[in-house]
Amino acid sequence: MQRSSRMGSVVVLLALFCVVTSHLALAFTDGLLGNGNFEKAPKSSDMKGTVVLKSNAIPEWEISGFVEYIKAGQKQGDMLLVVPEGYAAVRLGNEASIKQKLNVTPGMYYSLTFSAARTCAQDEKLNVSVAPDSDVLPIQTVYNSEGWDLYAWAFRASYSVAVIILHNPGVEEDPACGPLIDSIAIRALYPPKATNKNLLKNADFEEGPYILPNTSWGVLIPPNIEDDNSPLPAWTVESLKAIKYIDSDHFSVAQGKRAIELVGGRESAIAQVARTIVGKTYELTFAIGDASNSCEGSMIVEAFAGSDTIKVPYESKGKGGYKRAVLRFKAVAIRTRVMFFSTYYHTSSKDFASLCGPVVDDVKLLSVRSPRRLV
Fold first, then answer.
1. Highest mean pLDDT: which of 12-21, 85-94, 141-150?
2. Are 246 and 253 in contact (CB under 8 A)?
3. Per DSSP, what are the bridge partners of residue 247?
4. Which PANTHER family match (predicted)?
5. Spatial contact of 183 and 147, defined as CB atoms under 8 Å apart
6. Who contacts 203 (Cβ-Cβ below 8 Å, separation ≥6)?
7. Which of 9, 156, 210, 365 could be a cystine partner for 199, CB 3.0 to 4.6 Å?
């Protein structure tokens, strides 16, 4: 009887072990973080007006400093506070932060996606960190007429547990002034490699940050001066303004599911360095078009490969479409920098406020075989 009881206990323990290990294996999934959209509210006893009083009052988050829980439709004086998605968001006052821990795989790359909107100051910033990586993202430029934007930020995991922190480093006269944060999500990145079919990596832009379902705004990828690890593997944003990452569910793209939109004119450039052989001839082919987002007018994309360049015009009606272009060049170095930017600045014809621009997709870089000599 005792032996049977022990065997039963072993079976139960094994079953519990399987449940626990299977839960740990599923601890990370692409998508929203735990309560990433802040729809689970603090208890009323843990709040004073909009101010959250306890560090663990917001389910699945730890907070510090002056943090407010803002509901949709709420006003500050005569100003309506814009909640990007759903029922609620949080606002980070002076030196305030929100924090969450997540099981990850050391050595892997991850990209965070989150909504941010400034509420008071013109020069609001947001510090995003997962130790040892940390960057300050300027959010004073509003790309979307809605008053907020989706941003991406990437990190490489150094430990098995990532401590994700969003912090407002600003110090304003009004301690409540600070960015509204909402819809925090994550995606694992798998950087592709160059092949004999394309010397550029991730040239179709399929590998990139998480795009929230049912959102038609795209995700901003900040300049590399603010982000050491690109949310768009293999590419860097070498400019002052961000580029926008878009998907075929909500925009027109030339090929596949993802593409990039150059929304900041000459201040919105994307680049990659490829291995080349000196003296060999190469062809850089790519597609340019519009995202079917009412971005109308005469567009020009300038493409560079080393010291060679081409300007490709595209007349956009804002309803989708694309054309292909080719830049042939001879390599003068063992590494050639490929870069794209938009010559002009554009805004949507729907509101004349949302920044937009030409779409670049389906980029290829291949060597051109020399014709065989006849002897």
1. 85-94
2. yes
3. 258
4. OS02G0205200 PROTEIN (PTHR31265:SF3), OS02G0527500 PROTEIN-RELATED (PTHR31265)
5. no
6. 272, 362, 363, 364, 365
7. 365
pLDDT band at 225 (very low <50, low <70, confident <90, very high): low
Give DSSP secondary structure letters for 179-248: -EEEEEEEEEE-----BTTBSSSSTT--S-----TT--S-EEE--TTT-SS-SSTT-EE-SSS-EEEEET
Q: How many CA atoms lie within 13 A of 25 on its CB side?
A: 6
- Count the Cβ atoms, other than its own, within 10 Å of residue 212: 20
CB contact set of 209 (below 8 Å; sequence gap of 6+): 111, 112, 113, 152, 154, 187, 219, 221, 231, 232, 245
- Residue (of 166, 90, 158, 95) closest to 128 by Cα position: 166
- Dihedral, CA atoms, 360, 358, 117, 210, nearest 10 degrees? -20
156-175: pLDDT as tens digits: 999 999 999 999 988 777 77
- 4 class by beta-carbon count within 10 Å (0-12 exposed, 13-18 middle, 19+ buried): exposed
Which residue stretches of the chain are H helix? 2-25
Instruction: State both tokens at 116.
Output: 């941010």
Side-chain-side CA neighbours of residue 333 (13 Å): 10
Query: What are the distances in angstroms from CA 305 to CA 18, 72, 83, 288, 313?
Result: 54, 48, 43, 16, 18
Model pTM score: 0.88
Domains and CATH numbers, the chain: 31-189 (2.60.120.260), 191-375 (2.60.120.260)
pLDDT in tens, 261-291: 999 999 989 999 999 999 999 999 999 999 9
Phi then psi dihedrals of residue 45, to 5 deg = -70, -15
Please tell me the number of Cα atoms within 13 Å of 174 on its side-chain side.
Answer: 11
122: three-class secondary structure by DSSP: coil
The two three-digit tokens of residue 279, written as one number: 């003296």
* pLDDT digit string, tens, across residues 131-159: 888 888 888 788 888 778 999 999 999 99
Tokens (6 digits) for 5: 């009881």
Give the Cα separation of 328 and 284 in Å (integer): 6
Question: Which residue in 260, 266, 238, 230 sits closest to 341, CA to CA?
Answer: 266
Distance separating alpha carbons of residues 298 and 60, to the nearest angstrom: 48
Residue pair 278/332 in contact by the 8 Å Cβ criterion: yes
